Amino acid sequence: xxxxxxxxxxxGMVVACFMASQLVPCxxxxxxxxxxxxxxxxxxxDFQKLQDAVAKLSDQVQKLQQANSAQQQTHADDLDQIxxxxxxxxxxxxxxxxxxxxxxxxAQSQEQELQAPLDEATVNHNFQMLGDAxxxxxxxxxxxxxxxxxDFAPIFLYRAGDNILFxxxxxxxxxxxxxxxxxxxxxxxxxxxxxxxxxxxTLAAGELLIPxxxxxxxxxxxxxxxxxxxxxxxxxxPGSEIGAxxxxxxxVGNDGKFFNYAVYxxxxxxxxxxTADAGSLDLGGNVGARSDGINANLHPDPSGGGRLGFxxxxxxxxxxxxxxxxxxxxxxxxxxxxxWSAGVFxxxxxxxxxxxxxxxxxxxxxxxDNMGEIRQDGWWVQGSYKLAGxxxxxxxxxxxxxxxxYDSLNDGMGTTTQRETAGMIYYFTNTFLFEGDYEFLNTxxxxxxxxPTGNLILQLSLGF
Amino acid sequence: xSIYKQPxxxxxxxxxxxxxxxxxxxxxxxxxxxxxxxxxxPSPTNSPSAQPNSSDANAVVPGQITxxxxxxxxxxxxxxxxxxxxxxxxxxxxxxxxxxxxxxxxPAQARLILKYLQDNSGR
Lengths: 464, 123
Fold this sequence. Notes:
With about 475 residues, chain A is α+β, with helices and mostly antiparallel strands. Helices cover about 25% and strands about 45% of the residues of chain A. Chain B is mainly alpha-helical and about 120 residues long.
């Protein structure tokens, strides 16, 4: 409305100016050239001219008024259309906001339903098999030589995303039966689920390789440079137990040093015959499931343990040292009257790419009904040298490694055993190798037929 | 009371001494010839981790250990090194996680090792 008023005012001013422009010169002429009054009359021609001019101006004013009306109508239509568009935009924005809210709600709902790990739903998972196979020939003193065993020990790995791993190891061997024929043993060596919570904590649960020392976790099977285990490892500590564990490592600096730790709870050892006699200790048999159908541990409380280690690489390549101390304690007899406890010190030294020295000292004790406190201990130390370190290029030399081990065992019940082992490894490839060892066994038991004083062991091993 | 079998007592002791001398002599030899044979392993003669590394991420940073070095150090603690080309990148990721847990090494170091292995993997 204001616009139309301004236009009318402007039109009036135009008409006034035009009339003034026509009349003023006449007035000026009259004022500058005084004439008699009778000579001031307008001639008919001028008057007609003036009438024509006024008529023309009237037409122009009418046309402008018509144009102005049309423009006003157009303007009003434009305003209506703008208002309608604004309303539509508002509705569209509301619709979009509602859709966004719904979408967010749906996404949150789906996220709550899926939980972590989301990458499980992607292709970021993997399954594969590792493991090893061994074939042995043994000639024991006072015994017939025999092709001893064919051992197949696969490890199955399933990685579910970046931080979750399931790993299970089996050991399959053949064994002669007493009454003839043979049987195949199929043992579950370990089966654990691992969840890397962050850079410093990993949760593991299941049938765990117990971190009492490092041998059980890192040296069993083809990894060890001597075919059989140290006496003290086999006799004094459990290889695996069912439980849960938190482990992790903390770097120290940027040159490779770190501390590592492990704390765990497990069912612990048990009794083979429900008694608390010295000979009844069963280190690895308490697997949780009971034959009577009761879901309970064989004794009142589980065991607890842990390991603390430190690894340091030195400036010289392949030169490093790891030391660790570990222990476990807990009830072992069904009544829960006695504890079984173990402590292990382990160390591994590498001096260059060819020399390795490692060993463990193991000490255990447990209470019994018939023999009081049984205190056992044992240790082993193993050194090896790869002849590739010598200045000879012959493959027979470069692919050979010499190895020697000394180990001992005191069972705490009157029997002590020492064993010296000397042998060699020939590497056909980095994973296919031949091992030949001779063991000298010394024991204070009086019956040599039950305790051979020497064993020759030949083994082919393949790691895959 | 120990009742050792005396006939065998001298022989194993002698053999152990011989082996010990060989090991000690070998160690001394290794230290003497370390410069010329550094990185060598029995089989194959060239260490897998000595293979050319195409990754810039494993470029040597003064004062910081590399993925190749960590791979060589940690693998050789338990078994001979494997060639990175023996496995695919996805398989190395699984094996690396398995070894990280088994040897209880820091994940930060394991990531450097994995980077080296995947950069040089068989695929």
